[in-house]
């Protein structure tokens, strides 16, 4: 795959963040249609500075890499450098430059802040929009993008899009089950609620994999894409037996 094509695909894949934030749920959802806040651990009450955030994310990256190595894998690419900027979908791993771009609350535009304010209302979440952002973007999305780095190390990032995204979700879920099971449980419940709120976009009789692969470029950024990504997390969390982190990496 050419680098330009790879970057385009990675940019589309990173729209997964929007599923996390439920940004594409119908505008007309009423309070009666909202779902209760989950029991995810609250983030710090104050948004960290970019220096503190970089240290926080570097620690999480290093923990992830250490678990990859402890599982017996030798990454063929150095751990990605962290760039705190304004990626279109809040987070993106670029395998061409080996950079993991991640947003900070301090640099969000008003429209970005409004999305998390809306999410707070939909979830009836007692936390602040900043805390929801930190919990979603700097924990789940960051590790999901690190999972794409692992796939790049294994040359598994150029396959069919459903398999690539499912695999990244599977790795991220296994990591959080290992490091913070309560957080992973709250994420699963969060995604299950989103999955149940968005109408099923599949034409009758077509499989998730076939439809997602064939329509990846056109559904990115739509409620259908959010439905697929949320469903993947629900599915990986329902595997029996649940894979260990090492098994998820294989």
- The structural class is mainly alpha
Alpha carbon gap, first and last residue:
22 Å
So what's the overall shape? globular
- Rounded mean pLDDT is 84
Number of strands: 3
**What's the gyration radius in Å?**
17 Å
Helix fraction? 55-70%
Strand content: under 5%
Tell me about the biggest sheet?
A: 3 strands, mixed
**What's the number of structural domains?**
1
Q: Order of SSEs, N→C? A: HHHEEEHHHHHHH
Supply the number of helical segments: 10
Low-confidence stretches: 1-45
**Reading side by side through the largest sheet, how are the strands ordered?**
1-3-2
Plain-language structure description:
The chain has 250 residues and is mostly helical. It has one domain. 57% of the residues lie in helices and 5% in strands. The protein contains ten helices and three strands. A hairpin with a 4-residue loop joins β2 (91-94) and β3 (99-102). α6 packs across α9 and α7 packs across α9 (223-236). The longest helix has 25 residues, at 129-153. Mean pLDDT is 84; it is low at 1-45.
Secondary-structure map:
Elements: H1 3-13, H2 16-20, H3 50-70, E1 81-84, E2 91-94, E3 99-102, H4 110-123, H5 129-153, H6 161-179, H7 181-197, H8 208-219, H9 223-236, H10 245-249
Short synopsis of the structure:
This protein has 250 residues and is mainly α.
Which features would summarize this protein structure in a list?
single chain; 250 residues; mainly alpha; three-stranded mixed β-sheet; 3 strands; 5% strand; globular
């Amino acid at each position: 795959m050419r680098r330009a094509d790879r970057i385009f695909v990675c940019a589309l894949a990173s729209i997964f963040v929007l599923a996390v934030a439920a940004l594409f749920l119908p505008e007309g959802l009423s309070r009666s249609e909202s779902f209760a806040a989950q029991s995810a651990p609250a983030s710090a009450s104050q948004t960290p500075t970019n220096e503190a955030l970089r240290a926080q994310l570097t620690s999480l990256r290093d923990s992830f890499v250490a678990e990859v190595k402890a599982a017996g894998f030798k990454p063929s690419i150095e751990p990605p450098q962290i760039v705190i900027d304004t990626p279109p979908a809040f987070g993106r791993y670029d395998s061409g430059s080996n950079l993991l771009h991640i947003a900070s609350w301090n640099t969000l535009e008003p429209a970005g802040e409004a999305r998390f304010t809306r999410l707070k209302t939909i979830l009836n979440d007692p936390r602040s929009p900043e805390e929801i952002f930190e919990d979603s973007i700097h924990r789940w999305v960051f590790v999901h993008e690190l999972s794409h780095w692992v796939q790049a190390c294994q040359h598994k990032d150029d396959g069919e899009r459903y398999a690539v995204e499912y695999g990244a979700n599977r790795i991220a879920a296994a990591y959080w089950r290992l490091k913070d099971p309560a957080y992973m449980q709250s994420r699963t419940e969060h995604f299950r609620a989103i999955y149940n709120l968005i109408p099923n976009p599949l034409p009758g009789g077509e499989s998730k994999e076939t439809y997602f692969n064939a329509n990846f470029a056109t559904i990115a950024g739509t409620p259908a894409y959010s439905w697929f990504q949320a469903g993947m997390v629900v599915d990986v969390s329902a595997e029996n037996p649940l894979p260990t982190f090492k098994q998820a990496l294989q």
